[in-house]
Structure formats: C-alpha cells, structure tokens
Amino acid sequence: MIVVFVGPTAAGKSTVMDVYVEAKGAERMTSTTERDPRDSDRVREYEHLDPQTFNDQLKAGAFCWHDKVRGKQYGTRFTVVDAGLLSPEIHVCALTFKGLEILLNQQRALGGTVVCVYLLIEDGEEWIRRLQQRKITGEEIEKERIVLHQWNERALSFGGNLHIINTTDMSVAAVVQTVDQILKQSSRGPAH
User: Fold this and answer.
1) How many domains does one find in the chain?
2) Owning domain of residue 170
3) Does any domain span residue 13?
4) Which of 64, 76, 86, 101 is the most buried (most CB within 10 A)?
C-alpha cells in the first residue's frame, strides 16, 4: 500500500511522513534527485545523482515518474514504486500532481492500493511562518504564493479519491489521526 502526500511547500508532508516512518513503522519510498543534499533531508528520503547520471537513467526508463521542481529533476524508480504497490505494508511518499497521476496509472496496471492525501495549507500567517522556518523570504514567498494557490485549486478540482486535509491550524497529531481514519476507511473499501 502506498500513501501519497501531495501539497505545496510547508504544508507538512515531510513532517507527517516522519510520524508514519518513526512511530508507525511505514517505509519511506526513496526518491531520486539531481539536486544537492540538504541538511534537512531525512534518512532514505533521497538518492542524489549528478544531472548527467539522472538524465541517463531517465532515458533508460528507470523512473516511474519524474518532474522538475524549482529547476531540479526528481523521480521515483519503478522498482521502488512496484515494491510499494505490491506490499501490504504502508509505504509513504510525497509527489507532485504529475507524479501522482503517473503513479495512479502504474497502480491501474499492477494493482495494489494507493491512498492519496492532499495537505492543504491556507495563505496566511501560519504558512508564512513555516516558509520562514525554511529560510524562504521576500520574493521567494511571492513565488511560493502563486504555486500555493495553483495547487490548492488543482486539489479541489482533482476528483477521484484525493482526500483533502486542511493543515493550516491542525497539530501534527491531529493530521496523523485524520490520515489514520482515511486509511481505516480505505482498507474497508475498494483499492484507491
């Protein structure tokens, strides 16, 4: 089973995934990127490749999905995705909408369960505070604001089984509890 978290910068994707990995024993699906490592990267969160190696592997068809975020390429290998789809254990990842759509196509081909959760955050003081914690300020906040509004609009029109949680004024524990309820409901119903 794969639980996919989608959302704009500072919505809480990594924080919620950390709880699932550390407290609930979920597997983090490793993504591959050409960007440099950051101090904030979690263990097994990213495989870092130089741009040439990333492009070579992309051309060889190694990635189920790939997308560019802030000018850097990201992707997840087919082997990682297929293992998550075919496992009864929970695997967590964060994706863009493009990555989510491709993952859902792979799920239709292979089977397995994908639960999609959009972590919505509203434009306001809490979101600005979270951005500033990430050292995003000034003009960069304005760029992120455009993306925030585009992503929130896209989530509301996405359809299907995209579960939307407004994280703006929720504690991490409350968000995790809501995701737990979604997972409980998903295990009783058809595959998502």
Assistant:
1) 1
2) 2-29+84-183
3) yes
4) 76
pLDDT beyond 70 at 190: no
Residue 126 lies in a domain: yes
pTM, entire model: 0.86
The reply to whether 25 falls in a domain is: yes
pLDDT tier for residue 40 given thresholds of 50, 70 and 90: confident
User: For residue range 176-187, what is the model confidence (pLDDT) as tens digits?
Assistant: 999 999 999 887
> What does the alpha-carbon distance between residue 85 and residue 112 come to, in Å, rounded to a whole number?
5
Residue of 23, 69, 12 whose CA lies nearest to 46 = 69
Residue 109 has pLDDT above 50, yes or no: yes
CB 33, CB 54: distance < 8 Å: yes
Supply 67's token pair. 């997308």
35 is a domain residue = no
Which residue would you say has higher pLDDT here, 50 or 105? 50
What region does 126 belong to: left with phi over 0, alpha with psi -120 to 50, or beta? alpha
Q: Which residue has the tokens 């870092």?
A: 48
Q: Which residues pair with 183 in a beta bridge?
A: none
- CATH code at 117? 3.40.50.300
